[in-house]
Design a protein that fits this description.
Elements (H helix, E strand, L loop, with lengths): L2 E3 L7 H13 L28 E7 L6 H15 L5 E7 L7 E3 L2 E3 L6 H9 L7 E4 L16 H7 L8 E10 L4 E10 L8 E9 L2 E6 L8 E7 L2 E5 L6 E2 L12 E5 L5 E2 L9 E9 L10 E8 L2
Parallel strand pairs: 2-3
Antiparallel strand pairs: 1-7, 2-6, 4-5, 7-8, 8-14, 8-15, 9-12, 9-13, 9-16, 10-11, 16-17
Helix pairs in contact: 1-2
Length: 306
């Protein structure tokens, strides 16, 4: 039995920009093995960032023709901000445009929908595609939705690059024989924090999946049978809404630590998924549903599993 411990590499801006640009521009017939997300490096290679990262969710569908255009616009804003290293992007296929079948005379047979994605779409009122969120920040009067052309505002609102309240050390381990995912997530409070309700969600995403996509900007035929889908949500490793982290409504002095054992969820990576393209994403969020900032993401990290 072989167990492999993940040791993340320090991402350089150019490499991340290349990976993320793959995600939105669809270089056909090309598979990427790079990853998004951010690390700070340092003495401990598993140590996460002390600056706030941003979780960008793209609620999309494979027969949504203007969804790729929206994704290109969002990533252009991320590039222009110079914050590519701080961005973790995930595509969540949900809703009508994510359904399978024949549409416009073309087949869309790959079902990217997940119970987790459908639950998040319902909770965040992502009733149309494309629908983008930025650290689940409120954008009155539009709820959590940010239009692609206002993502410069979204990044500012999400406080990307400012000192973070938490640091996440994400240390996945993957058994290549059983395909079971284990390891741990360590969370450190970086400031003196008043009591709150925090949960930690761990997700699995798969990168570089070749399947059909409608792309209104791809001419002369907008149907692309071999589109490269990037950073697609494959499911929740934890419960869909995560696991409690830290005691509820307890003051957290700077330096307070808590951790989550990924292996306790007995999550196996399905054989149909390309393990070399799979990533785990972990984020801590405000789980107080009575709070005006409910669901807000305080910190997020991403690592490859293999």
């Amino acid at each position: 039995m072989k167990v492999k411990q993940i040791i993340p590499t320090i991402m350089i801006a150019g490499l991340l920009a290349f990976a993320a640009c793959d995600y939105v521009s669809n270089p056909r017939n090309k598979i990427s093995t790079t990853t998004g997300g951010s690390t700070t490096g340092g003495i401990d290679p598993n140590q996460g960032s002390t600056e706030r990262n941003v979780l960008i969710e793209d609620y999309t569908g494979h027969h949504c023709g203007n969804c790729p255009r929206g994704a290109r616009t969002v990533f252009a804003a991320v590039q222009a901000s110079g914050k590519e290293k701080k961005a973790v992007m995930i595509s969540i296929h949900s809703g009508l445009f994510a359904s399978t079948g024949n549409f416009g005379g073309h087949p869309y047979s790959t079902d990217f929908r997940t119970p987790a994605g459908e639950a998040y779409a319902a909770a965040f009122d992502a009733s149309f595609n494309p629908f983008f969120t930025s650290n689940h920040k409120n954008n009155p009067p539009n709820g959590l939705y940010f239009a692609p052309d206002e993502f410069n505002i979204a990044l500012d609102s999400s406080k990307v690059g400012t000192p973070s309240d938490f640091r996440i050390d994400l240390i996945p381990e993957y058994n290549t024989t059983t395909r079971v995912l284990s390891g741990k997530v360590r969370v450190n409070a970086l400031k003196n924090l008043t009591g709150g309700t925090y949960k930690l969600i761990v997700l699995l995403a798969e990168d570089s999946i070749i399947a059909a996509q409608l792309d209104d900007d791809h001419l002369p035929s907008t149907y692309v049978p071999d589109y490269v889908h990037r950073h697609v949500l494959r499911g929740a490793v934890t419960d869909i809404w995560g696991s409690p982290i830290f005691a509820v409504n307890t003051t957290l002095p700077a330096g307070t630590k808590d951790s989550l054992n990924i292996g306790s969820f007995s999550f196996s990576v399905p054989s149909a998924y390309h393990e070399e393209h799979c990533h785990v994403i972990a984020y801590i969020y405000n789980a107080d549903l009575a709070s005006p900032t409910k669901y807000e993401v305080y910190q997020v990290e991403e690592r490859k599993i293999k």
